[in-house]
Amino acid sequence: MAELTYRDAVARGIAQEMERDPDVVCIGEDIAKAGGVFKATWGLFDKFGAKRVCDTPIAEQAILGAAMGAAMTGLKPVAEIMFADFAAVCWDFFANEFPKTRYMTNGQVGVPLVVRLGNGGAARFGAQHSQSVENWCMMIPGLKVVAPSSPVDVVGLMAAAIRDPDPVIFLEHKSLYATKGPVPDGEIVDTLGTAKILRTGRDATILALALMVPRALAAAEELKSKHGIDCEVIDLRSLVPLDTRTILASLGRTHRLFTVEENPRLCGWGAEIVSIVADEAFFDLDGPPVRITTPHIPLPAADNLEDVVLPSVSRIVETVRRSLAS
Amino acid sequence: MKSAAPPADIPADTRLHLYHLQVLIREAEQRAYDLFLENLVKGTSHLSLGQEAIAAGFAAAMQPGDLSFCTYRGHAHTLARGVSVEKVLGELMYRDNGLMRGKGGSMHLTSVEHGVMGSYAIIGAHLCIANGAAWRAQYRGEKDVSTCFFGDGTTNIGAFHEALNFAAIWKLPVVFVCENNLYMEYTLNADVTAVEHPAADRAAAYGLERIVIDGNDADAVYNAAKAAYARARAGEGPSMIECLTYRHSGHSRADPAKYRPAGELEKWKKRDPLKIYRARLESLGVAAAKLTEIEQRAKAEVNAATEACRAAPPPPVDIAFTDVYANGGAAWRN
Ligand SMILES: Cc1ncc(C[n+]2csc(CCOP(=O)(O)OP(=O)(O)O)c2C)c(N)n1
Ligand SMILES: [Mg+2]
Q1: Closest Cα to residue B122, out of B102, B140, B108?
Q2: Do B166 and A56 touch (CB under 8 A)?
Q3: Which one in A242, B197, B247, B253 has a CA-CA gap of 20 to 30 Å to A177?
Q4: Range(s) for CATH 3.40.50.970 in chain A?
Q5: What mean pLDDT do residues A230-251 have?
Q6: Chain A partners of B101 at a C-beta cutoff of 8 Å?
Q7: Which segments of chain A belong to CATH 3.40.50.920?
């Protein structure tokens, strides 16, 4: 068992797969010699060489196109888009090319690749380097969308994503890169589409993703110790496939639902889950489902402003407490 | 412009094959148009009438295992790689016998077993994707070459430039083929382009040879293709070949092409690739009866395919829900 950072877990997960499968290759801006702007691919170039860990020009369409053509013909590329916001300049690949090819070709061509993106806020980078783009990705049929919150999940879900025969959008949270957690030795392979119950509780279910997971856990601690409210916290980990079974089962025990979403409010993943709950578990609810989200605004750069708009531990605590009291 | 004179070293049977491909494409495309007038081809379709020599010349120069990446104007390239007329027309008619059983349609013809790795309808992307297939070949030491076909208008989108630079720096075994038919959809590409030769002049900026050929002469196309494939297989990197041509029909089936100046179509029809090639073969001593036989064979194949497609059922509705994901289904949740 080692204590790894989330950032080192990225490289560990990729290295694990590169060692077992020579078809796994990495491609992106500054990922090779420099080890990535977030240092998440640190060490891969030294270990696997320039043939398998490739620096590219600043050309996001060329990067994703190369990954796609290689994936269609037998390789398993792991492409990096430095900041998730940059997905907007190569969105054709997310929206049109990766996800529709298998369908349009009647199953002739698959696109087994992973796109890693530095996602999310709380790093004071301003509106164009801080967005949470999970909903952009989730809305497209044909993509899988993964967003781990801990180092061990990074390793296992990275392995699962690389082995998966479909295009997987792998959202690494920039503000989690420096966080640490225990990671067992040896091969780790997780399962896409499985949520994790990180804390059991009787009074309410709190769903969270990526950076919102540690915040939800901290809020749950405070709700318990200060207010006697016992929350179950579920880390979704994967938006597509979505583990609705785990969500609905939890709701069947707690009867109250809260989502904690970093994305701007409109069409956030929580909205889809609330709609599923309204359809399929309405009579399990003892009160309205509540979405705790970033407001529908671009993210401000200044630390005090960003702290106000991103869901915080205190906002989660207050929202849950008030909702359960009313 | 390079190599206008017919070189003598193209084998006789290759020449007959080149003629056969061009005639077959002409017949199939004409039939696609007729079926559209009968309301049996739905949606949109983009014909290559007048551009047949490019598809024929490149396909004939390819080896089995080589990969083609086409655009929405891709029927010709798909047929040229050996996909049956029935499969192509069946797809255009949204029948169950279609190449993708109606799930892709006219703009997305794909046949992996023939090396047709897809037809792409968002301008620019597939140049980058062809690079990826070429990267795989280079990475694994495989000898296949990827060819990417696109139009003159495509040279102005960013992905074109990203792809060229990328292919050049990695010396990828990819051949870019610009079918310069002068027009984007309805606008003369020259009116919106900073250079005279939209592909070749830009290629030079990425360190590639500036190649402009007569795209209506199948021999010229074949020879340029051969040379590019030899370079690619020798590890000498990508090529860009700009083929001058003209489409006889409108951009898509909805387009009467009223924007063309009077006389332009007639001028180009005098340079019809099929006429040019028939005359070439006759001048080389091929018997007229042989050429007529090739033409009859193509007509018969298209007729038989048409009848098969008319008789074919539409796809069963359950396939609307298959192959979204690799497990064969569409489930996004448990
Ligand atoms: C990104 C993008 N922009 C615009 C279009 C609409 N469009 C379809 S075909 C076309 C013209 C393309 O012209 P050219 O590259 O010369 O090819 P041609 O149709 O002449 O073969 C346009 C603008 C598109 N499909 N994709
Ligand atoms: Mg054109």
Answers
A1: B108
A2: yes
A3: A242
A4: 2-183
A5: 98
A6: 106
A7: 196-325
